[in-house]
Amino acid sequence: MATLRETRDRIRSVNSTKKITKAQELIATSRITKAKQRVAAASPYAEELTKVVARVASATSLDHPMLSERENPRRAAVMVVTSDRGQCGGYNHNVLKKAAELEEHLTDRGLEVVRFVTGKKGAAYYDFREMEVSGAWSGFSENPEWDITHDARNHLIRGFEAGSEGQAKWREGLNGTRGNTVQGFDEVHVVYTEFVSMLTQAPRVQRLLPVRTNTEVEEYAPESMTRVDGHVAQDMEFEPDADTLLKELMPKYVSRVLYSIFLEAAASESAARRTAMKAATDNANELVKDLTRVANQARQAQITQEITEIIGGAGALADSGESD
Length: 324
Fold this sequence. Notes:
CATH topology of the largest domain: Pyruvate Kinase, Chain: A, domain 1
Strand content: 5-15%
Structural class: alpha/beta
CATH architecture of the largest domain: 3-Layer(aba) Sandwich
Helix content: 40-55%
CATH class of the largest domain: Alpha Beta
Distance between the termini: 43 Å
């Protein structure tokens, strides 16, 4: 059984750890608020861009490389979005598990998987298991910025445009020799953590490219009207033509979607860290209560033993005095 001094030392150690976990919980809570504000601030531009792309696409034949399925796809890129730091519960484990399931599915389809990862934890995971990673970017998992994520976003877009038979420009973060070109791919999938609520974050797979289009049954409308997002709008003439506009807008649209994924993953990471640190703080409180109870019992036993020794000593002195 631990001595009273050892128990008190352990209580001090747990209290010190509790201060750290509590501070991490408060920091994560403040970052969740900021991350949600960033998502809200980016929403107006994303929504308007989506409307513009939808309106332009409605005036074209949808014959665009980013909207068309490749006839014989051979290579598929998988971007795995993880965190730069730990202490976030099962956040990284869940997304890496989901990525493994996706890779198995793509392999069953006969596709060669090209793996990319953001976040130091994901890069370390694959490096430890000696699994090839074609590109890795880190340093922005909690606070993604448009400029910092530029290389990651643009490589996925340019690599898809090149296709499995073409070559894309080398960028920072990619493996290989600087300046050399790298082989492209025919599909792009992103595995990230969706922010459902403060307590729930779910790993999700999204096919980024080619972009899935919704084909619905057309409803009657006058010839001078066209439907966009379910609403009837006036037909428009585009300058330059709609096909040229769509060619320029699609890379921007896909890049914005990927950036929104980074923002949502950042909010999910902070929420997961807050939940994990709150659980650690609660466990520390319970452990301190248990250890305090053990310390009190040990102290009580020590006092009882001292009283017993005093009474025993007094009795011995009394007996020796009577014998004299």
